[in-house]
Design brief:
The protein is α/β, with parallel strands linked by helices and 392 residues long. The chain folds into two domains: 313 residues, Divalent-metal-dependent TIM barrel enzymes (TIM Barrel), CATH 3.20.20; 58 residues, no CATH class. It is built from 16 helices and ten strands.
Length: 392
């Protein structure tokens, strides 16, 4: 078999809303027919995916009766069983219904906030019933255009109260579930609260149930803020808070595009995969590789499955390139650095002796400053691996 063909062991996942995207945009009507969730499960399995994720409304349309809800869930469970897929993550749609036009958990109206909690508790129940172990929160409408509408400190307090409430609900129900918070700087609101992964990481440190809450960074969202997605993910990993990840592609300075993974800024995608796979020696991310993207509006259904296979295949291609790059003797030599275990210990651990030793040592900074680091060569080697000129 082609080594880049996706298989379930790769732990690739898609949302019902991703491959099920009908191609509607603010300027045009749908270009593809809606696909039944059970059919999506079948097709994702044929493509080699491991799992499928969902918003509550993706599976059970808002307003469905209890009987309709149970029938849809039963059919979906049967499809998962038949095709060997799992549901690792679920989330709640708190942005489509007009009631959320000024936010859900941060709305000025306590009735809206109460409804948002009600809808989320029901959706958490659904996610757990389907086997989800991670629950994502994306505050799509949590923001403002008219800044005078609320003190943003109140928005932070309301969001904290909501996450604390829902975490307590999960614990009270005895669910084995973790929360992952997803940042985005803008769209659909003019300015969203908690716009970056860094904002989310600090917010998590203020929560009552901090240990069960992490982040779900998304490539496009961090790029929209003009930030390095690799650095944001690395900080989340270092903090032990990377609970889930959304992979896609994005052109800098554009609206949220959710493009096929690796189709833009392949260099960033390479270093992201290198980080997640731990090929440079750091800990590997062991969670799902989730693609929160969709096919171009130019595509029919065949193009949708080409898109899905392309996301997974590109990830595997980049993983192979990263392994080869980090195994290259030239790369390893450039990254070797200067070995000085005693100094490493002294600068990492304060003591009076270490402070005194550092004060007394002559570091010869002028000599250090003249030392070339070889990063031009290192970066060129990365490009040569990406372009297939090396390690083929």
């Amino acid at each position: 078999m082609d080594p880049f063909t996706p298989v379930p062991a790769d732990r690739f996942t898609f949302g019902l809303w991703t491959v099920g995207n009908v191609g509607r945009d603010p300027f045009g009507e749908p270009v593809r027919a809606a696909l039944a969730p059970t059919y999506i499960v079948q097709k994702l399995a044929e493509c080699g995916a491991w799992g499928v994720n969902l918003h509550d409304d993706d599976l059970v349309p808002y307003g469905s009766s209890a009987a309709k809800r149970d029938a849809l869930v039963a059919d979906f469970k049967a499809a998962l069983e038949d095709h060997g897929l799992v549901v690792p993550m679920a989330t709640t749609n708190l942005f489509t219904h007009p009631v959320f036009k000024d936010g859900a958990f941060t709305s000025n109206d306590p009735r809206v906030r109460g409804f948002a909690l009600q809808k989320t508790m029901n959706a958490i129940d659904l996610g757990v019933e389907l086997g989800a172990s991670t629950y994502v929160f994306w505050g799509g409408r949590e923001g403002a255009e008219a800044e005078a509408c609320r003190d943003p400190r109140d928005a932070v307090k309301r969001m904290r109260a909501a996450i604390d409430f829902l975490a307590a609900y999960v614990q009270d129900q005895g669910y084995d579930l973790r929360f992952a918070l997803e940042a985005k700087p803008n769209e659909p609101r003019g300015d969203n609260y908690f716009p970056t992964t860094g904002h989310m990481l600090h917010f998590i440190s203020t929560l009552e149930h901090e240990a069960m809450v992490g982040v779900n960074p998304e490539v496009a969202h961090e790029n929209m803020a003009g930030l390095s997605f690799v650095h944001g993910v690395a900080q989340a990993m270092e903090a032990g808070k990377l609970f889930h990840i959304d992979l896609n592609a994005q052109k800098i300075g554009r609206y949220d595009q959710d493009l096929r993974f690796g189709s833009e800024d392949v260099k960033q995608a390479f270093f992201l995969v290198r980080l997640l796979e731990g090929t440079a020696g750091g800990p590997r991310y062991e969670g799902p590789r989730h693609f929160d993207a969709h096919a171009y509006r130019t595509e029919d259904e065949d193009g949708v499955w080409e898109f899905a296979r392309g996301c997974m295949r590109t990830y595997k291609l980049l993983a192979a390139r990263a392994r080869a790059f980090d195994a290259d003797p030239d790369v390893r030599a450039l990254l070797a650095g200067v070995a000085d275990d005693d100094l490493e210990h002294r600068i990492a651990h304060y003591s009076k002796d270490n402070a005194t030793a550092l004060r007394e040592r002559d570091f010869a900074p002028d000599t250090l400053a003249r030392r070339g680091l070889g990063y031009e060569r290192l970066d060129q080697l990365a490009l040569e691996y990406l372009l297939g000129a090396r390690g083929a």
